[in-house]
Design goal:
By secondary structure, this protein is an alpha+beta fold. The chain contains 32 helices and 31 strands.
Length: 1024
């Protein structure tokens, strides 16, 4: 049988050469691919495809040379595997060449691609079907379809592989139409495969199966076209020359980094999918183009050229490079470059690995910004506006623009306040408050939700939630609630009116972090107040324990350190306060093992009483045996360990002292002159409370037993009806503000029904989640004090009435004396008498001036305020006119600056008294014979009234007198001839109006008076 294989007939030389010559050419291509082409999966499959084609061509050659059917059939069975594997190898090569990595990486797809070839080879070898060979005068023995099912399926499968390969190469060639080199390469491959594919499918399958026309076995001959095109592609267009040499395609496709290979002239010869995805370009837009013309900005070219220079010198390089994506966005990358050599070791280009570090760079910048903001919030910035400016400047480092604002809720006025607001087009910082209604800020405060919306979703959001106060619809809005003590009190927001891509999710998360820093600044004041309360509690506690004769220590359970001891402990252990505070408690209380200490704490927390013998070690090392009584005390939710130790060497005396100390402590509260209590707040609206404790002094004060005082309503029934609302309002204010309050009101004594005056002080002591749960209070009988105050007030009024009546009654005799002096001067003939009359007259006038001033003081004290409209500037000008007869009046330059309303509501007479005495003081103490004397008047508005500034450049006031000039009968200048009551009257008049007067002066440089005048609408408002 073997002899038959080599009994060949070469009479038909032409058909034999038509298959033999292509076989030799294909074998040459196969060897070239193995030796010269870069090693990759694409190269390997390409070589297998060429080898299968060669086997097919050899099969046709040997079958055509066989002299008899048996020999032809043997060659057919032996070499037909080449025909079976041409199809799958060709399709596999097409998928690799066209970069269909998802398909080529699928093991399932590869199995179904190659399984049919093995199946048909095995089934044919096993005899399930055979190829039908017929003799042709020209071709010799040729393969004819047998009509069997498996034979038909085999032929259809081979044809299907050819069609799919052709379609894959054709689609890719069209896709590469814009890439110069790759377009020619892909078209050459496509045409090279197209010719034998169409010929083979037509002449060997369609015509025989469909029309019964004898087949023309020229497929192996025409396959030389593909071999020729492949050779041209290899030689001229460098087919596969830039496939990666050192990694497999699977590895490249799964890398996170972008990979690019360029030739020596910078043209791109290979890019992986990750680089295309990173930049937003397709491979066709990058291939055979220079990177600097597509995605590398001009500002980065120097780095690129320096890297290429090192590559030409055979060196690797690494550098940071900014790239421009197709969308226009910029990304930061870390580039590693290396020379790219072919198999012969010749430098043919550059290999670049690009890692996107944009997120890392942004994260680094965000961490730096977060650190700066946190440091500012925790190291002294307590002003929201200042913190807002810092935050805004730092945000600008992260985003291109920042329309940033902070809004806060003012619950008292029900308004939204904007302590900081920067707009991207104009600075509108300090925007006016607005009523709480239905804006973006109000939505976030009400819901407590963060918002990140942009584009059309902003309009939809506004419409769906019926929001208002929106002058211009933002393109993007990013906001988060600002919380204080678990409650939403405001909003932090970023928005842009011009760019809906101004911010992203990272900025949203960063804004949430910033809200915590702003809350830190707000918390500082609250924390300071809480710390002060805590220190007050500790001070009270220390005062109590210092009275004991026992060893008493207070220990911070969290760290086991001593925070306080009493005097007895210091004396017996020979420590100073500074030396012992801060020490670990176990340094003075000797325990054998740490578990003993932990056992103490465990027992205490479980509710057990801990009384143990122990040893206290003094500073000098001496040990004192003591009995330790431990307990845990909680103050403002902080746990402290309180230990009471007793020296058992003097047990009897110590027990007596302890008993006395305990009695003293237990009766301490009962011996006070106030009645203390503790009340639990059950609800605020309506206000419901429950009495936890009430000391017995309440019976002595109000005639009610402490044990009956179990309902706050019992006390409310005893309060005078006119005062009940005031007391309840004070309690609610204490609960809302969490600050101590004091009320003075009247109650009816439970036994005598007499009215007594009560002073009640209450302070919150247990606050959880911003809500007052418990508060302590003290009730004191101040009836005697109120009685004494009433008597003192009556005596004061009586004295004022006396001064007024005396000054009024003395006016008559004083006027008579003045008349007598004038008559005596007329009747006297002695010239020496005139001198004495002048002195008498001067003294009488001075007395008259004093009486007038005292009368004015009395009028001020006793007078009733009458509100009316006053034109302040006009009144001041009238007052100035009354002093025009003063010496050097004409040399004074009077200046007015008025930015306030002309008319204010106040008491005219009191205001004019204040202004008259102040202006007179400025005129009196000018520098005489000084050409530039002036008095400047400035009127301006304040938040609740009017500010008047009177400034002169007169002789000024000595520093030693500046603090007493408003006192009665004080003269700040030794040359003064006044009564010393002018500025005292001015001060009393402005006090009566509820205003203020302050002075600033420097000797020789002048004096400035600053007067504030509140404006009112009624007398009741003034009296309040």
């Amino acid at each position: 049988m073997t002899d038959l294989l080599f009994e060949l007939n070469f009479n038909r030389l032409l058909p034999i050469l038509l298959s033999l010559i292509p076989a030799i050419f294909s074998l040459s291509i196969f060897l070239y691919a193995l030796i010269k082409l870069p090693k990759s999966s694409t190269t390997a499959v390409f070589a297998c495809f060429v080898f299968a084609t060669c086997v097919w061509q050899i099969n046709d050659t040997m079958v055509r040379s066989a002299p008899i059917l048996v020999a032809a059939q043997l060659w057919q069975d032996l070499l037909f595997a080449g025909v079976l594997f041409v199809g799958p190898f060709g399709l596999h090569f097409a998928l690799l060449y066209t970069e269909q990595k998802k398909l080529t990486n699928s093991y399932i797809l590869m199995f179904f691609l190659y399984f049919p070839a093995f199946f048909f080879e095995v089934t044919e070898s096993a005899g399930f079907f055979r190829h039908s060979l017929t003799y042709n005068e020209f071709w010799g023995w040729i393969n004819r379809p047998s009509g069997q099912i498996l034979n038909t399926l085999e032929a259809s499968w081979i044809a299907s592989c050819g069609v799919l390969t052709l379609i894959t190469l054709g689609v890719y060639a069209k896709k590469m139409s814009g890439v110069e080199i790759r377009n020619k390469q892909s078209m050459l491959i496509f045409i090279g495969y197209l010719v034998p594919a169409i010929q083979g499918i037509t002449t060997q399958y369609l015509l025989p199966f469909t029309f019964g026309i004898p087949e023309m076995p020229l497929t192996t001959t025409f396959s030389i076209v593909f071999s020729t095109c492949a050779v041209i592609g290899l030689a001229r267009y460098r087919l596969l020359a830039y496939d990666p040499l050192l990694t497999s395609d699977n590895l490249i496709s799964t890398m996170n980094e972008g990979i690019m290979v360029t030739d020596n002239w910078g043209h791109t010869k290979f890019v992986n999918d990750q680089l295309c995805e990173m930049l937003g370009y397709s491979p066709g837009e990058i291939m055979d183009q220079k990177a600097e013309g597509i995605f590398i900005p001009k500002s980065e070219l120097e780095k690129l050229y320096e890297g290429r220079k090192k590559i030409k010198e055979g060196e690797n390089s690494e550098f940071e490079l900014e790239l421009i994506k197709k969308s226009g966005d910029r990304i930061q990358t870390w580039v590693s470059t290396a020379p790219y050599n072919n198999q012969d070791g010749h430098h043919i280009g550059s290999l670049m690995i690009l890692t996107d570090i944009t997120k890392r760079k942004r994260a680094e910048l965000a961490r730096e910004i977060a650190f700066n903001i946190t440091k500012a919030a925790n190291r002294g910035i307590r002003d929201i506006n200042s913190l807002g400016k810092l935050i805004h400047s730092e945000i600008l480092r992260l985003v291109p623009n920042a329309n940033f604002y902070i809004s806060l809720l003012n619950e008292e006025t029900n308004t939204i306040h904007f302590p900081f607001w920067i707009h991207e087009e104009v600075d509108i910082s300090g925007q006016a408050d607005r009523e709480f209604s239905n804006g973006f800020s109000e939505y976030i405060i009400n819901t407590g939700k963060s918002i990140f919306i942009k584009g059309k979703k902003v309009e939809d959001f506004v419409r769906e939630n019926e929001l208002g106060h929106i002058d211009k619809m933002p393109k993007i809005y990013v906001a988060t609630p600002l919380k204080h003590l678990g409650k939403v009190i405001g909003v932090l927001a970023l928005q842009s009116d011009i760019n809906q891509h101004a911010y992203d999710e990272h900025d949203f998360e960063f804004l949430k972090f910033i809200s915590g820093q702003v809350a830190t600044v707000i918390d500082k004041q609250e924390m300071l107040e809480q710390q002060q309360l805590r220190e007050a509690d500790l001070l009270f506690f220390r005062n109590i324990i210092d009275q004991s004769n026992d060893f008493i220590t207070v220990v911070d359970i969290d760290n086991g350190k001593i925070i306080d001891v009493n005097e007895r402990t210091l004396q017996k252990l020979d420590y100073s306060k500074e030396e012992i505070v801060g020490k670990l408690y176990t340094e003075i209380h000797i325990v054998e093992e740490d578990y003993v200490w932990n056992d103490y704490l465990s027992r205490l927390r479980s509710g057990d009483q801990v009384i143990e013998p122990a040893l206290y070690r003094a500073k000098n090392g001496l040990e004192t045996p003591v009995d330790i009584n431990m307990s845990i005390v909680t103050i403002d939710l902080v746990e402290y360990l309180v230990t009471v130790g007793r020296d058992v060497r003097e047990k009897v005396e110590a027990e007596t002292a302890l008993s006395e100390s305990q009695n003293q402590l237990s009766h301490l509260v009962e011996n006070l002159d106030v009645s203390v209590y503790a009340i639990e707040v059950l609800s605020i609206s309506p206000l419901k409370q429950r009495v936890l404790y009430q000391s017995s002094q309440i019976f002595d004060i109000a005639g009610i037993n402490a044990e009956d005082f179990d309902d706050v309503g019992i006390w409310d029934e005893m309060i005078h009806p006119d005062d009940l609302e005031l007391v309840q309002a004070d309690v609610l204010e204490m609960i809302e503000t969490k600050k101590s309050m004091t009320s003075i009101y009247r109650v009816f004594h439970a036994m005598t029904r007499k009215i007594i005056w009560i002073e009640e002080t209450y302070r919150p002591v247990k606050v959880v989640d911003g809500e007052v749960l418990t508060y302590y209070g003290a009730i004191r009988d101040v009836t005697e004090r109120k009685t004494q105050e009433a008597k003192l007030t009556a005596a004061h009024k009586e004295l004022e009435a006396f001064i007024y009546k005396a000054s009024h009654d003395l006016k008559g005799p004083l006027s008579s004396s003045m008349g007598l002096v004038n008559i005596a001067r007329l009747e006297s003939k002695d010239t020496n008498d005139a001198k004495y009359f002048d002195h008498i007259e001067s003294s009488l006038k001075k007395l008259e001036s004093i009486l007038d001033d005292l009368r004015q003081v009395a009028i001020i004290k006793q007078g009733i305020i009458e509100i009316g409209e006053v034109d302040v500037e006009s009144a001041m000008r009238d007052i100035i006119t009354t002093f025009k007869f003063y010496e050097e009046f004409d040399s004074i330059h009077f200046e007015f600056e008025n930015t306030a309303d002309q008319i204010v509501l106040t008491d005219r007479s009191l205001l004019e008294l204040c202004l008259r005495n102040t202006i007179e003081n400025a005129i009196k103490y000018q520098k005489y014979n000084y050409d530039d004397s002036y008095i400047h008047f400035k009127l301006s508005k304040t938040h609740n009234g009017l500010q008047i500034i009177i400034k002169d450049n007169g002789i000024g006031i000595d520093a030693e007198h500046i603090h007493t000039i408003f006192d009665m009968f004080v003269r700040a200048n030794h040359t003064s001839k006044g009564t010393g009551l002018g500025l005292y009257i001015a001060k009393n008049a402005i006090d009566k109006l509820g205003g203020t007067i302050e002075v600033d002066s420097k000797k020789g440089w002048g004096t400035t008076f600053e007067i504030t005048v509140p404006t009112h609408t009624s007398i009741d408002e003034v009296e309040e």
